[in-house]
User: Fold this.
Amino acid sequence: MAAGDTVRLKEVTQAVAMLTDDDLAALCERLGLSAEARAVIETIRSTPPSRRVRSAAGNVSVRYPSRKMGVTIQAESHRVELAGLYEYEHDPQVLEFYDQPPAIKLEYQTGSGRQAGVWHTPDYFVLRADRVGWEEWKTEVGLERLAETMPHRYVRDAAGQWRCPPGEHFAEPFGLFYRLRSSAEIDWVFQRNLRFLDDYLRVETPPVNKQTAEAILELVGQQPGIHLDMLVGQLGETGTDDVCTLIASNRLYVDLHAAPLAEPERVALFRNGEIARAYTLVGKSESAARSLSAEAQESLAYAMAHDSVTLTRRHLERQVAPTRTLLNLAREISEGEAALREDSSAHDELRRLLGLAASPATKSKGDANGSPAHPAAGAAPRRPTGRVVQRRPTRDPVGNTSPVGR
Assistant:
């Protein structure tokens, strides 16, 4: 995009209703604004922009067709001010916004100590649900430079927020505000998503076929948190427009601040915001649960299954008891094995009880104690048969099989 060009976005075909006189009167009364403040507001609402913004080197001005305002709104820059317009357009707390309102006079001390008075045209005048006033947008780098040359006009406070004391001084008597806005506070992921959805947000965008919409909603309902690329893969290429239309019409929920829609493998979809928030909480709970011991996880599951608000010692004892029994059994087995190793007669008795003792036939040529007979001296050794004789397995306490004699 070359410097000096003007971007004209897609025109809207239908205006959105703005505040009526009664709405404005109710707003002023709710905010406690004076008659003088209301006169300022009405003047700005009924006055066309005080100047026409123009592009300059390194800067491209924009004419943005606002659905909320029903008119074209100017942005002096396609970067910072246009981002402000997108915010105003989609923020439900913003009721109306006007570009290039009548100039206001700022009085402040220059860097050299001289008292100055300048006429200043803010970027926008904004009517919000909770306050009304002027907003001026600047790049963060630009504000840092201006703070050096005009330290009494551009100030960063202790909280790191940019302020304009002379602007605030002008607005305060009316009960209005003056606010400096920095490019550093812009959520660029959100901005990118709004631009991605721009065509789908237009009033002339055709609705999604009822059966198609129900099928998509059912898929997302069955797979909460399904990623956009997986959903489109199930629907086919033509499903992309339908999904984006459902997102733009708030029938599908996406956290537009979390990931760019242009990167569908990162975008999670839900039926609504409540399900998305619950899904997030469950995910955090599962992550925390993975760090708990097995006994604590089982106790927590028991408490939740019985609608217990507090995890008590009783829950822990209930789950720890089986584990304690297994540990005691393992200790007894270990002690028994040690005893068998010390007493060979007890070892033979145990083998007999388990049916593992040698049969009488194998002891016929042995001694009186049942020891196996040895071949006579000089006798030829038995020739191997070539077969491998497997020992009968037995089970250890945890259920694995292992051969006797190991």
Remarks:
- Residues 313-342 form the longest helix (30 residues).
- Confidence is low (pLDDT under 50) at residues 1-15, 361-406.
- The chain has three domains: 7-186, 203-286, 292-331.
